Amino acid sequence: MRIGYFGGTFDPPHRAHLLAAQAAADALRLDRVLLAPTGVQPLKDAGPHASFDDRLAMTRLLCSDDPRLEVSEIDAPHPDGSPNYTIDALARLRAEYPSADLFVIVGADSFLSLPRWRDPEKLLAAAEWIVLSRPGFDLNSIDPDHSGDGIAALNLTSEQRARVHLVETLDEDISASGIRERLRVGVSCGKSLTPTVGLYIARMHLYHAT
């Protein structure tokens, strides 16, 4: 089995998250993509705006129409409020799926910050990586042939580089922070959110939605 792990705040989950998960599944022939809302992201100063339960529920709605996608609680908040680390999530996934091929799905800009993550070398060994382009981000900038730029600056070994798969996707600029701001001032986000997620936000009065 080929399993993708797609962690994120999902605050809220939006169409770009859905397109990213589907593009990764299509490109690498994944049997399953686990979308895992994160309790506390160590590289973000501010915490999530919606509760973990609300983010989990919204992400479940986002995934409801694609049988390859499912929600995972593997990155649920720790009782002591400590950060969630990807290396720990991968260890739990490996214990649950000992014979599966594991893939981590990330945006290109997040992947370039890999040296700041906990145990980056162990991360590269623990799973293969699907690196997605994002709006305004030139995928060529993480091509190793561009010496000194992007992915080349990570100094990956040939073995590590072989475990990184570049996938172009996302031709529209959607951000969770932009959605939250529009909802705060009462502007429609219909094109950025799936209908079920939009209805959930309105019903639960999240992000000051009216």
From TrEMBL:
<feature type="domain" description="Cytidyltransferase-like">
    <location>
        <begin position="5"/>
        <end position="182"/>
    </location>
</feature>
<dbReference type="InterPro" id="IPR004821">
    <property type="entry name" value="Cyt_trans-like"/>
</dbReference>
<keyword id="KW-0808">Transferase</keyword>
<comment type="pathway">
    <text>Cofactor biosynthesis; NAD(+) biosynthesis; deamido-NAD(+) from nicotinate D-ribonucleotide: step 1/1.</text>
</comment>
<comment type="function">
    <text>Catalyzes the reversible adenylation of nicotinate mononucleotide (NaMN) to nicotinic acid adenine dinucleotide (NaAD).</text>
</comment>
<protein>
    <recommendedName>
        <fullName>Probable nicotinate-nucleotide adenylyltransferase</fullName>
        <ecNumber>2.7.7.18</ecNumber>
    </recommendedName>
</protein>
<keyword id="KW-0520">NAD</keyword>
<dbReference type="Pfam" id="PF01467">
    <property type="entry name" value="CTP_transf_like"/>
</dbReference>
<dbReference type="GO" id="GO:0009435">
    <property type="term" value="P:NAD+ biosynthetic process"/>
</dbReference>
<keyword id="KW-0067">ATP-binding</keyword>
<keyword id="KW-0547">Nucleotide-binding</keyword>
<comment type="similarity">
    <text>Belongs to the NadD family.</text>
</comment>
<keyword id="KW-0548">Nucleotidyltransferase</keyword>
<keyword id="KW-0662">Pyridine nucleotide biosynthesis</keyword>
<dbReference type="GO" id="GO:0005524">
    <property type="term" value="F:ATP binding"/>
</dbReference>
<dbReference type="InterPro" id="IPR014729">
    <property type="entry name" value="Rossmann-like_a/b/a_fold"/>
</dbReference>
<dbReference type="InterPro" id="IPR005248">
    <property type="entry name" value="NadD/NMNAT"/>
</dbReference>
<dbReference type="GO" id="GO:0004515">
    <property type="term" value="F:nicotinate-nucleotide adenylyltransferase activity"/>
</dbReference>
